[in-house]
Structure prediction request, 378 residues.
Amino acid sequence: MPEVNKNIKDVGTGFASFLSPPGPEVIRFTVGQPDFDTPEAIVQSAKDSLDRGETTYTRTQGSEELCSSVSNHLKIHDISIPSEDIVVAPGCKQAVLYAMMATLDPGDEVLLLAPAWPSYDGMLKMIGAVPIHVPVNRENYHPDFKALEKAVTDKTKAILVNSPNNPTGAVYEPKEVEMLVEFAKKNDLWIIDDMIYATLVWEDYGYTSPSIFEGGKERTITVGGWSKGWAMTGWRLGWIGGPSKVMDAVKKVNASAATHVATFLMPAAITALTLENETKEMADSFRERRDVIHRLLDALPGVSVPKPEGAFYALCDITETGMDDVQFATRALKEAQVQLIPGSLMQGGEGLVRISYATSMENIEEGVKRLQTWLSDL
Ligand SMILES: Cc1ncc(COP(=O)(O)O)c(C=O)c1O
Prediction:
């Protein structure tokens, strides 16, 4: 029998083993998606498009109106990418893959700030590139520039930046993003900037794009999407934009691999980018939950957690409990009926557990109370 692609054997399955839906008695702190319905106006827009019969092939990079809506939306974050250099992809995840396929050759090394969202590692291995996990500072999960410098070799071709970050909840300060750009310039790297959580920031300084700093624009590929800020995870819509040279390659990849996203979703994606109140309400609600969960988690015996600055994750250091993170997560599920993600599913996440607070305030209070009782009785 022929063999399967040898690159695939090293590709992990991410959080899958700890994501299986438990019984209703379990509080789930595992699911990384907003607990809101997609706003009604967006849903209606997709229905209207279907009613108009918009079900045929269309422009591969996304309709002109959609690409120009994305280009305008990015201006809110001071990102300037003309609509010709925007491609709408089936999810930010696929946009990340496009960025990698367009910029990397087999054997190229890519710096990931560890612990990193596991899909980056899997995608890089899939295309024969090499993920290099560089630990962030343990006390605040911000970049460790000395460690980054040490990790550079003559094969390093790119750095992946994700701020607000999954799984750490960190949001990098403008000065740090500027330093990342300086670092990329010095070492001649592409910057793949995953801004999927850009609208969910709890610090005054907000999300900062590497493209705003001198020399950043020409080496930054920006990827993002509708999943998190607009409660549209199942719609599979994301964007990618950057220098024309890269986007010409991305357009080829997209045309070969996907043709385009569903035609009748395009008007809905445009509608989404016009909504302000709904997205703000969702973001405000996550911020409130952040305040509560951080206060409660910080009081748990043996647990310490830097204040989450964005997205909807709290990454807790549980080493003082004497358990490793897999034991902690396994026992929390069995003995406290609380499901969470052990950090060692990601390289550099040993001793940490990820808690998603995209769940109701009741669940947050009850779930942390259960952890409190369980840990106090140990
Ligand atoms: C950092 C990061 N990037 C991208 C994605 C994927 O987004 P999408 O649903 O648009 O593919 C996720 C989803 O969890 C994520 O955490």
